């Protein structure tokens, strides 16, 4: 079966709020409802929208799905539930919606409760939780990182663009049969700040670069690029480097931008000649403007 990207189905980011998910569902449900829609394949799209909403509206199912997705799965890829997945207990869902995919059933349908029958599913196993601090370079590129747990070295697959607070589950690695749940945090960076997928970078420039403009080299997570500074710039001016921020975790999602914030710094004069230049500048800027 194929892994389904429920966020992409609803057209929302993995960080979307409950209200955003509900709004996206209502808009798409109206568009593709088989009774009113003339869109090609409306019925199948409507089923896919219902299935995505069934998972993302429920905090328990959404958390389980996010943990699975953080393992690096992408929409359309071949998928089999990881070992021990079915041991976490069942999930209730609205059987009346019907038409759920094999992917959904493999994750949430195996032990679902039925009204008036059977016994409730067993509680999930206790988890061991830990924090996983990542460098921004690792978050940007993705890859693998080794961690030490109880004297053991574990290799963790890091999805590119993973956000703080998202979790990576290592099945059976928490000791005593428990899973190890790693919550992602970013290490402080010497050059960059982060706002979602956006990278903020403060760049010191000289007064003549601010006044006259020019091209400077700027550091990004992917390497050094050239940036054009427009004339008459000042401290606080923001320049955008498109798609130089963190990648999206959603399949086909756009990367964030890098915002360069200019800070004009005046260098201390070294020697009499440079002091003379400052005196000339002071005189020039103190003159009243010429009336034309």
Characterize the structure shown.
With 292 residues, the protein is of the alpha+beta class. It folds into three domains: 6-109, DnaJ domain (Helix Hairpins); 128-186, HSP40/DNAj peptide-binding domain, CATH 2.60.260.20; 192-286, HSP40/DNAj peptide-binding domain, CATH 2.60.260. The protein is 28% helix and 24% strand. It is built from eight helices and eleven strands. It has a four-stranded mixed sheet. Strands 1-5-4 form a three-stranded mixed sheet. The protein has a two-stranded antiparallel ribbon with strand order 2-3. A hairpin with a 2-residue loop joins strand 2 (143-149) and strand 3. Helix 2 (18-32) packs antiparallel against helix 3. It is elongated. The chain starts with 5 loop residues before the first helix and ends in a 6-residue tail after the last helix. The model is unreliable at 92-98 and 111-123 (pLDDT under 50).
Concise structural overview:
The protein has 292 residues and is of the alpha+beta class.
Q: What integer is the average pLDDT?
A: 84
Number of domains: 3
The N- and C-terminal alpha carbons lie at a distance of 76 Å
| CATH class identity of the largest domain | Mainly Alpha
Counting copies of identical and different chains, the oligomeric state is: single chain
SSE order, as H and E?
HHHHHEHEEEEEEHEEEEH
| CATH topology-level name of the largest domain | Helix Hairpins
CATH architecture of the largest domain: Orthogonal Bundle
Strand proportion, as a percent range, falls in: 15-25%
**Portion of residues within helices:** 25-40%
Number of helices: 8
């Amino acid at each position: 079966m194929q892994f389904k990207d429920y966020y992409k189905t609803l057209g929302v980011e993995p960080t979307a709020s409950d209200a955003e998910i509900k709004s996206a569902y209502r808009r798409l449900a109206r568009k593709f409802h088989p009774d009113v829609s003339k869109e090609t394949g409306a019925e199948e799209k409507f089923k896919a929208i219902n299935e995505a909403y069934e998972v993302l509206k429920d905090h328990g199912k959404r958390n389980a799905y996010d943990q699975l997705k953080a393992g690096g799965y992408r929409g359309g890829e071949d998928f089999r539930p990881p070992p021990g997945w079915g041991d976490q207990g069942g999930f209730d869902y609205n059987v009346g919606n019907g038409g759920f995919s094999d992917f959904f059933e493999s994750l949430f349908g195996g032990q679902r409760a039925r009204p008036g029958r059977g016994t409730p599913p067993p509680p999930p196993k206790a988890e061991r939780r830990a924090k996983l601090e990542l460098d921004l370079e690792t978050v940007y590129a993705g890859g693998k990182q080794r961690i030490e747990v109880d004297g053991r070295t574990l290799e963790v697959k890091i999805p590119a663009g993973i956000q703080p607070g998202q979790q990576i589950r290592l099945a059976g690695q928490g000791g005593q049969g428990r899973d190890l749940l790693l919550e992602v945090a970013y290490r402080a960076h010497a050059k960059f700040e982060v706002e979602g997928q956006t990278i903020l970078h403060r760049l010191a420039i000289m007064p003549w670069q601010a006044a006259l403009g020019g091209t400077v080299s700027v550091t990004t997570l992917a390497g050094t690029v050239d940036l054009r500074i427009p004339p008459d710039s000042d401290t606080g001016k923001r320049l955008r480097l498109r798609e130089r921020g963190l990648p999206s975790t959603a399949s086909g999602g756009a990367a964030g931008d890098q915002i360069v914030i200019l800070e004009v710094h005046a260098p201390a004069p070294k020697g009499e000649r440079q002091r003379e230049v400052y005196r000339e500048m002071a005189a020039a800027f103190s003159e009243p403007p010429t009336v034309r």
